[in-house]
Amino acid sequence: MDKDTLTIGKAIFLTVLYFGIMLFYTFLDVAVWRKIFPDLSPVANIFTIIACICGFLLLLKKLGFSLRLFANVNLTGVLFAVGCSVLFFLLLDRCLDPVFESFFPQSEENYQETIQSLLKSPVTSFLQVCLLAPVIEEILMRSVVLGGLKKTYGTAVALPVSAALFALLHFNMVQTLSAFVCGIFLGILYLKTDSVFCCILAHSGYNLIAYITIVYPN
User: Fold this and answer.
1) DSSP string spanning 19-67?
2) C-beta of residue 190 within 8 angstroms of C-beta of residue 196
3) Is residue 190 part of a domain?
4) How far apart are CA 188 and CA 201, in angstroms?
5) Is 55 part of a structural domain of the chain?
6) What does the pLDDT read at residue 218?
7) pLDDT at 3
8) What residue ranges of the chain have pLDDT lower than 50?
9) Do 174 and 100 meet the contact criterion of CB atoms below 8 Å apart?
């Protein structure tokens, strides 16, 4: 069996492992950095996140996964990625999210609290939301999980399973439902371009558009 193939069980394990890493650096931020370095906690947190992401990427490499960050990058793929960024914003933020929010008002309240927390440290929040999260999530969910599951089970299984696991990385129901839809489109983009970089660009671009509308609502 090819070293990049993946079973559903192993895909779940890798997703849970990364989710645990997210919980770990979130715990450090809340329980340690904010108490020891209240003024510098956002900076301490971003360095912790970078260290955790680098460690996870090294683990993936050690397990034999080829991350292929810059493979198959071309102008057509980049244009598709930029188009997907705009599509995600219009489809999710302007159409589906208001519907999801009406069904899960508590999740929406929690999401708004998260946004207010991000606005307290806009620079480090920008780095986390628009750069770091898209890079690690796309490498894991598209290059490793979707790519590996496709080799083992085929596209019909790999696409929805990878989108569902991507959705589970998000912390409330509104984001989870949106992330599943986003995961399907990002998965299709990956399958069509065979480029994880294009997926990172689409994901980062969407987060950037959403971030700008939050920071500068008018």
Assistant:
1) HHHHHHHHHHIIIIIHHH-TTTHHHHHHHHHHHHHHHHHHHHHHTT---
2) yes
3) yes
4) 14
5) no
6) 67
7) 58
8) 1
9) yes
pTM for the complete prediction? 0.93
With respect to residue 133, please indicate whether it lies within any of the assigned structural domains.
yes
Extract the tokens encoding 66: 């080829």
Is there a domain that residue 59 lies in? no
CA torsion 55-56-61-64 (nearest 10°) is 140
Which range marks the domain in which residue 98 is found?
67-215
Quick check: 167 and 176 in contact, CB under 8 A? Answer: yes
pLDDT at 103: 87
Domains of the chain: total? 1
Amino acid at 156: A
In this structure, the dihedral spanned by the alpha carbons of residues 38, 43, 48 and 54, taken in order and rounded to 10 degrees, is 180
pLDDT of 1 reads 41
Largest Cα separation within the chain, whole Å, is: 54
CA distance 63 to 66: 9
